[in-house]
Amino acid sequence: MADKHDVKIAVIGGSGLYNLENLEVVEEVNPETPWGFPSDKIIISKLPSGDKIAFLARHGRGHYLTPTEVPVRANIAALKFLGVEAILAFSAVGSLREEIPPCDFVLPDQLIDRTRGLRPSTFFGEGLVAHAGFADPFHQGIADLVYKHRGVMDQYTLHQNKTAVCMEGPQFSTRAESHMYRSWGADIINMSALPEAKLAREAEIAYQMVCMSTDYDCWRVEEEAVTVETVMENMVTNSANARKLLNAVLPDLDKAVRDNTLLPDLKGTMKFSGMTAKEKRNPDTVAKLEYLLPGYYI
Ligand SMILES: CSC[C@H]1O[C@H](OP(=O)(O)O)[C@H](O)[C@@H]1O
Ligand SMILES: Nc1ncnc2[nH]cnc12
After folding, report:
1. Arithmetic mean of pLDDT over the chain
2. Which letter does DSSP use for residue 151 in this model?
3. Most buried residue, 19, 76, 201, 213, by most Cβ within 10 Å?
4. What residues line ligand 1, using a CB cutoff of 6 Å?
5. Where does substrate bind (predicted)?
6. Measured in angstroms, how far is the CA atom of residue 215 from the centroid of ligand 1?
């Protein structure tokens, strides 16, 4: 199936970004993975070069999954099964910094986990223990490539090397929490960077979030706190800019992946991550992992 599709890169669209425009749709697929079905059908489209790319709406088209409910393991496993080696993941975020106004974009390079243990966040466990490196949760090579194209965003700024905090939600933060995140050094906040980034790392997929600022959360004491209305208002401008950025970045990213020039190369990094003695491995878990990392743990 992976060969049939020959898809190397994927875009995950978040709140307000539910499809890719301007690309010819080739087919829709809905692979059942050992972790269930993805959020929605995966749309396979053609780039101008003829190469295929995948698009997945994180909350489903029509936005019916809360951040906690997103079947992230199935999403990442399904993309990996199609052959995906790099993911550009879009996310609507609140800004925790004056210098990141609504409609600016941010390429985070660090991440603070404030999810609450409700989301399955690893492909391992149940008789197969493995540990992935996660010191740098995003992919510098993809970030650099996206940053090169910042000119397409007109008057809006694309910031790099910022810290994101991922909270559970679905309620927004209290003012005290928002101030606390600022004091921790966080620059932006969302509800979906995790476990997406962790699972992509376990699947050896290069993963970078492109965060689109929609609001100032609630730390600016004299101002109204974030609402969905504000977020969606600013997403009109943001999704137009996301599409411009995608038109510029996708051909380059696809070429870099196909030419093997995207660094760091994550392929093979999980090969020696397993801790469990061969005779102690749970055969059912080993069988599931065959879907994701064939030959690694068998
Ligand atoms: C609609 S505001 C909160 C919601 O928006 C972001 O979604 P996504 O990351 O999928 O763009 C944020 O993470 C929350 O899930
Ligand atoms: N203020 C905020 N907090 C969490 N997630 C968000 N997504 C967009 N704005 C957000």
Report:
1. 96
2. G
3. 76
4. 14-15, 58-59, 67, 91-92, 169, 190-192, 228, 231
5. 191, 215-217
6. 12
